[in-house]
Amino acid sequence: MPRLHSRREIEELRRQVLSRRDPARTTVSVCSGTGCLACGGAEVVAAFRKELEAQGPRDTPGAIDLRGTGCHGFCERGPIVVIEPGETCYLQVTPADVPEIVARTVQRGEIVDRLLYVDPTTGEKTVRESDIPFYKHQKRLVFGPNRKIDPRSLDDYLAVGGYRALAKALFEMTPEQVIGEVKEAELRGRGGAGFPTGVKWEAARKAAGEPAQRNLAALPRGSAGVRGAVRRPAPNTPPAQKYVVVNCDEGDPGAYMDRSLLEGNPHGVIEGLLIGAYAIGAREGFVYVRQEYPLAVSNLFVALEQAEAHGLLGENILGSGFDFRVHVHRGAGAFVCGEETALLASLEGLAGEPRPRPPYPAVKGLRGRPTNINNVETWANVPLILDMGAAAFASIGAAHSKGTKIFSLVGKIVNTGLVEVPMGISLRDVVFKIGGGIPGGKKFKAMQTGGPSGGCIPESLLDLPVGFDELTRVGSMMGSGGMIVMDETTCMVDVARYFNEFLTEESCGKCVPCREGLRQMHRILTRITLGRGREGDIETLQQLSETAIEASLCALGRTAPNPFLSTLRYFRDEYEAHIRDGRCPALSCKALIAYVIDPALCRACMICLRKCPANAIDGGKDIIHVIDQTKCTKCGACRELCPPRFGAVRAISGEPAPPPIPEERRTIVRGGAAAREGRQHE
Amino acid sequence: MDLERVNEIVQQHGNDPSFLVQVLLAIQRENHWLPQEALRRVGEKLGAPMSRIRHIATFYKTFSLAPKGRHEVQVCMGTACHVRGAPRILDTVQDDLGIRPGETDPTLKFSLDTVNCLGCCALGPVLVVDGRTHGKLSPAKATEVLRGYE
User: Fold this and answer.
1) Are residues B77 and A253, on separate chains, in Cβ contact within 8 Å?
2) Is the Cβ pair B117, A254 closer than 8 Å?
3) Pairwise CA distance, residues A327 & A226, whole Å
4) Do B62 and A640 lie within an 8 Å CB cutoff?
5) Which residues contact B112 (CB under 8 A, 6 or more apart)?
6) How far apart are CA A595 and CA B75, in angstroms?
7) What are A418's strand-pairing partners?
8) CA A195: distance to chain centroid?
């Protein structure tokens, strides 16, 4: 691999890469993100490889490019295959489909109809990926390159303009100008709190500590990306003075955009980090990534190795005199490590416990030195800002929230996946235009944003524009971008209990309002979902919330009551139904529901009877089935297994189970008029 | 675990105490749990007291201080899986295996753990056995999946 010594050389390499690419050449892209791999993406790639070899055009070897790309985002319909030119998009492809795709689409340019996207309402089929409604209403700036590049190919990244912004920063701009540009773009942190990134950078740049200088000559060469190896300065080099950190400790359950960015476009994150390091004056950087993301870790290592080999990392980057190295730390599984001071403790090899701020990490961070920590998505926005210019970037989005934001749209939604939308779009558009609404004809109830520290937003507020301040005003927050959609069968008390339990477990235990307060809240919330709530419970929960908000050390404790407070604010009636009537309106809380078989609908088919794990169903062939409530464990298997054309099993809450029908009426007489008469009896 | 291998791992991390978490992670990855003698060796090599090592080994979720079963079962309890019925899946798995999260059965066949999100939300509720993802589960399907492991 050629080491690049100047801006001219990287542009020359880019020209070479592009000149080798013919837009008319057939390219088969298979999404190889974690989501698609989990549903068979790797097998699809293997099948293509085999099939292209078997029936590829022999006269022009290598005429077809096969590429495993980063996550396309439409996880609901994975594995996704896109064939260029023409952008033909096939969904839920299996290895068995591959021979036909190669024979028809690749060889003859025909469309395989049955693999196309079908609009659920109109039945219309869509060929091009970008015309699918899920994509059509998005604005894919940060996430866009993912579908075009193989995360393990530097060439692919260069082909989409990679490292152009870095060269611009290094050769055309002073560090102050870079910071000025990021400030002017009004980029706000994508990790949760939404703090202005440029302001944070400026603080780190101005913080005491020697400015960056070249003295890495003593470093071992070629060590920047060796798997598992640790790269640290040789003993006689003076320590680096400032640090930059990528926070990929994406702990919010139901949020995975940071993973998909780091895994699908690692060079994009590295480039952003390099630009930030140059602006701040840091010579060492860290990527802190959850070890639960093995693919992201391995793609990152590959990218670091490539960048090092090409002189995009290490000393004298592109001949500019700027030196920078990156270390990778795996997170060992602690939600609180997403908090920056806890993350720093973890980087130092300690338990990830937060400390009070100030001093802020910008002044006193890792090893007591100025440190700037940004979230993956924030870093990935940086090259974009330099590329398109601050003004153009700031023209996208809403008043105080500029640019786009990637959300992971999950839960009770038709189109689960990652969506990138301009700030200011309404939640309704996200749920219905992009997300395709709620599956199974159910009714939308709430959207939970901001992770465990966020809140639930009810239907009445769905027209709210998406923005940092707007979401905070209604009692939720942007957080890292999880959007969990809930329908009428989701119990809001249980949701509050769920998040509270999560945070109780993840509390590091250092301060009392969080450690003990959350535990007490959890006890009460659990009691309510078990039907043992008492008058006064809501008030006690409110008091505990207030204490946690006022007195906790870090954001985990201060925001922990949000799920309870927001569900209480918008769904108080559900709390009251649980406490006063012992009723779960969503028919979700196990202790408050019972499953019953409607004798008028049961056809005595024996399916539920045979499969009931608790043997709680009595009946027989032609004898209407009855659930013995004393034996029932409420696993719901009977309702799940009852054929939809009968739909005889239902859940009830807040009312006693009806008495079983008398024995003499339990026999079903099959066939003809006798049966109909028998049914009328019932 | 071979203590020579522990030495090597510590060496690869530059004998640097600030890489203690990373060292333990590497041992966990290779050995699937952290035996006491390995921890003691790490402590000697890095000059870290056992109190600090155990603090870390119990603070972070990834680490296990007890041996794991032949098959590691993880039930995702992330929000998306939760609203799609993960608690029922967990109940079923617990009943089937006779163990609770964090436990290993006496025959060392299965270990059960919960995880807070695997980022495969489109497939929820999700269960992972030995790194293989099983999605769109119902309690009945979960039972079937587990039956397939010997």
Assistant:
1) yes
2) yes
3) 10
4) no
5) B73, B74, B75, B93, B94, B97, B99, B100, B101, B102, B103, B104
6) 25
7) A408
8) 20
Q: How many residues does chain B have?
A: 150
Residue of A125, A65, A122 whose CA lies nearest to A90: A125
Task: Measure the CA–CA gap between B106 and B99, rounded to whole angstroms.
Answer: 9
Q: Residue written as tokens 């440190």? A: A371
Q: How many CB atoms lie within 10 A of CB A55?
A: 13
Structure tokens at B85: 């019925």
Q: Packing angle between helix A266-280 and helix A197-206, nearest 10 degrees?
A: 50
Residues 111-140 of B with CB under 8 A from A: 115-124, 126, 133, 135, 138-140
Q: What is the 3-state secondary structure (H, E, C) of A173-229?
A: CCHHHHHHHHHHCCCECCCCCCCEHHHHHHHHHHCCCCCCCCCCCCCCCCCCCCCCC
Residue A438 CA: distances (Å) to CA of A443, A486, A636, B122, B125: 7, 9, 21, 14, 17
Q: What is the pLDDT of residues A222-271, one digit of tens each?
A: 344 344 444 444 444 444 489 999 999 988 888 899 999 999 999 999 99
pLDDT tens figures, A261-299: 999 999 999 999 999 999 999 999 999 999 888 899 999
Selected residues 11-40 of chain A with any CB under 8 Å from a CB in chain B? 34-35, 38-39
With the C-alpha atoms ordered B105, B111, B115, B119, is the resulting torsion angle positive or negative?
Answer: negative
What tokens does A408 get?
A: 């992971």
The 10 Å Cβ neighbour count of residue A93 is: 26
Which residue is closest to A232 within chain B, CA to CA? B14
Surface of A (350-369) touching B: CB under 8 A: 350-352
Q: What residues pair up with A465 in beta bridges, in sequence order?
A: A426
A619, A609 in Cβ contact below 8 A? yes
Report the predicted TM-score, pTM, of the whole model to 2 decimal places: 0.89
This model of the complex carries an ipTM of 0.91
Instruction: Give A412's contacts in chain B (Cβ within 8 Å).
Output: 83-84
pLDDT band at A635 (very low <50, low <70, confident <90, very high): confident
Let me know if A14 is exposed, middle or buried by CB neighbors in 10 A (0-12, 13-18, 19+): buried
Where does residue B131 rank: exposed (0-12), middle (13-18), buried (19+ CB within 10 A)?
exposed
Whole-angstrom CA distances from B126 to B129, B132, B134 are 10, 10, 6
